[in-house]
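Appendix C: a fully annotated inverse folding record. The material below is reproduced so that readers can follow the format used throughout the book. The structure is listed first as tokens, followed by the designed sequence.
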């Protein structure tokens, strides 16, 4: 199961350039509009994060987001669904419950489903672009997690959760989990 990391990063870089986004936080709703997707929030069960619906017979795309979720979670859901839109173009309707897809097969619920891993990577790349993060951390070799305020400051700057920022920094080699 090869994850297309470089491919995903290139797509995000082109998308940020096309949307003229040069600093955080990334306006994911604007990115969705540029891609022709409409974002709608609705009340849903807590484990339903969102969905992507390619409306047959046209170029219309609808991204649904759970209204009850925190703003950072909604941003991640939108970015995640945009990942599915750009990377996995075969499904007309895709539902994410807890970011696990239940409509495919048993592998989908194990966290080993390639499309879910790629959509999560796409969301991280879009919300916390590597060039932006590297610029913010240019003079640091590592982040000191004992100083919660550093991590909190970065998370707030990118409008993501501290947990999302922690994973992103670990994946970029700035800290060890």
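Designed amino acids, in order:
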């Amino acid at each position: 199961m090869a994850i297309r990391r470089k491919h995903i990063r290139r797509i995000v870089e082109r998308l940020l350039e096309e949307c003229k986004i040069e600093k955080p936080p990334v306006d994911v709703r604007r990115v969705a509009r540029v891609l022709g997707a409409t974002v709608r929030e609705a009340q849903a069960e807590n484990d339903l994060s969102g969905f992507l619906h390619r409306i047959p017979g046209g170029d219309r795309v609808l991204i649904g987001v759970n209204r009850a979720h925190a703003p950072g979670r909604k941003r991640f859901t939108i970015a995640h669904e945009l990942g599915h839109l750009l990377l996995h173009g075969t499904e007309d309707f895709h539902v994410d419950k807890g970011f696990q897809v239940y409509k495919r097969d048993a592998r989908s619920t194990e966290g080993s489903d390639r499309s879910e891993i790629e959509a999560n990577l796409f969301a991280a790349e879009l919300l916390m672009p590597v060039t932006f993060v590297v610029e913010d951390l240019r003079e640091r070799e590592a982040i000191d997690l004992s100083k919660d305020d550093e991590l909190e400051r970065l998370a707030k700057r990118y409008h993501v959760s501290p947990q999302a920022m922690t994973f992103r920094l670990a994946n970029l080699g700035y800290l060890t989990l």
